[in-house]
Amino acid sequence: MSDTRALTDRRRRVLLRVASVVALLLAWYAYTTAARTLLASPVAVAASFVEHFVVTGTLRRAIADALVHAALGYALAVAVGVPLGFALGLSERLAAAYDPAVDALYAAPVVALAPLFVVWFGLTPLAKTVLVFLFAVFVIIVTTETGVRETDRGAVDAARVFGAGPCVVYGEVYLRSALPSILTGLRLGAGRAIRGMVAAELFLYAGDLGSYLIDTAATFRMADSLAGVLALSLTGVVAMALVAALGRAATRSGS
Amino acid sequence: MDHASEPATLAADGSTPATTEPMTAMNERVRYPLFGVGSLALAWELLARLAVDGLTPLSDVLAAGVGLVASGELFVALAASLPKLALGYGLAVAVGVPLGLLMGFSSTADALADTPVTTLFVTSVASLLPLLIAVFGAGIGFYVVVVFLFAVFHVTLTLRAGVRDVDDALVETGRVFGASRLGVYRHVLLPASLPHVAAALRLGAVRAVKGMVVGELWVYAGFGSLLHGYQRYGQTDSALAVVLVLMALSVGIAGGLGALERRYAPWHHVEGGVR
């Protein structure tokens, strides 16, 4: 009885979801055909996406090139962020001392550093990597810290009583308890890294991706420009889904 | 801060437990952060003076910051930037708060709005900059749209997640005690949601400042023109001073909102944005 009700409820929600998307696309299409506007129609955007991402592959290659810096910066952010978050989560004093600084840096507009990076690193891939690193690292620190701090101290004490060494206590008890929160951080960090990659392309120096975004918009090729934006959104979604899937696989093999 | 005066009177009575407890609270809230920031500042200064060549020492940055204030450059930039920030943020709040509440309370509204809102949430607003400038030009409309887009989806989705978290048991209790449907909204759901509104506003403010900076950097206006100018002449001290000011602006607005929250919604604090 309640099963069938839950089913129809879910079906209703899926229907609403599909209906809203279809209605929005139709409204968008109707607007672009009826009014004289710069905005490209959804059909034109989709066609441009297929052309540049699939057929000729210019957009795909541009994003793949930019992803190299993003991946490097992200890897660095994970390598630094997780241990730092662990330390802050384990020690209340450390957290009391450095939480405000971490929060302030987390809230700071990192892009403002881009002009400085040009002075420090020149127009080099290193500048892009460091910018991506700063975009991603703080969310990883904060989520790891939260996960470690919320570890059940009873489980830790129990492990110690049964003679567990530091390897087991930190590597098993704390890590396993904090893992869901850490994985959230890694997923959000991947999304931030993609945003950092875009910022690096636009505010440091333009590779193929930055040039694509700037040139298409400057020449009012709105459909091509929006296709680029769409491709970047999808890249972000795929990156986050990939990290989440890797995390699930790691959790399963670990337990 | 009522209990700030409390320990003094209790201490006069010679009640030791009451005095030691606020002391540790004071340690937590003032001394430890002071030590944390102080140690980072010292590390910066030493690194710059002794090890890293290109890094400007913090003392030089602070001196440049004083110069920035004295010359009035900072106030010119602030006067140009704050109205854009306020307009865009105000718009984001005006749209994001009702939308987030609606999506949190009603599963129908959620099913309707979820796909577009989430799609726009994951879209990098920066990647829209070249397009937005082509459409809006470099007028105030451009900044307002950028700030709005940076903030609105974070406000909406933070609030939705928070409102969904409101304990069902609270609602049931309200019903059991005879509250009407409207009464449950008015006396249970709304007060329980208010801390989440506060958290969403804090996060939104932080995002809005980021949007303002991104927009100004793109157009070389306000803080953006300051930063680009310092870059051109290699004045890293002044550029870093501007970065510190922007960080302070972001933390300051979020902190101010936090203070308002403690005043008007002190029953429950939700972490998020800036703690």
Task: Sketch the topology of chain A as an H/E string, one letter per element.
Answer: HHHHHHHHHH
Structural class of chain A: mainly alpha
CATH superfamily annotation of the largest domain in chain A: MetI-like
CATH architecture of the largest domain in chain B: Orthogonal Bundle
Residue share in helices of chain B? over 70%
| Tally of helical segments of chain A | 10
As a whole number of angstroms, the C-alpha radius of gyration of chain B is 23 Å
Major sheet summary line of chain B: none
Level-2 CATH architecture of the largest domain in chain A: Orthogonal Bundle
The shape of chain B, in one word, is globular
Assign the CATH superfamily of the largest domain in chain B.
Answer: MetI-like
Helix content of chain A: over 70%
- From the 3D structure, determine the CATH topology of the largest domain in chain A: MetI-like fold
- Would you report the number of β strands of chain A? 0
Biggest sheet record of chain A: none
Q: Supply Rg of chain A.
A: 23 Å
Any idea of the CATH topology of the largest domain in chain B? Answer: MetI-like fold
Total of DSSP H or I helical runs spanning 4+ residues of chain B: 11
Structural class of chain B: mainly alpha
Mean pLDDT of chain A: 89
Protein name (chain A): ABC transmembrane type-1 domain-containing protein
Keywords (chain A): Cell membrane, Membrane, Transmembrane, Transmembrane helix, Transport
Family (chain A): Belongs to the binding-protein-dependent transport system permease family.
Domain ABC transmembrane type-1 (chain A): 63-247
